[in-house]
Amino acid sequence: MHHLPPELHLALQRAELTQHMTTQHRRVATRLQRQARRDSRRLLRAQQRMTRAAQQLARADAAAARSRLRLHAISGT
Question: Global pTM?
Fold first, then answer.
């Protein structure tokens, strides 16, 4: 190992460094992908909750309008 010519030694170091960086990069990439998937699932759930809330609001609105109509009909105004 110590008998390597200096340029080969440098090349070996560079190769090891590159491999290390590639491993790190892959690790970071998989973590980011995992986070992105989790975030998109969270976003989807939030959108579903908002849709449900909007539907409930629309139903409550319609019910309120109907009861107002009934009140008007009863009171004759």
Answer: 0.55
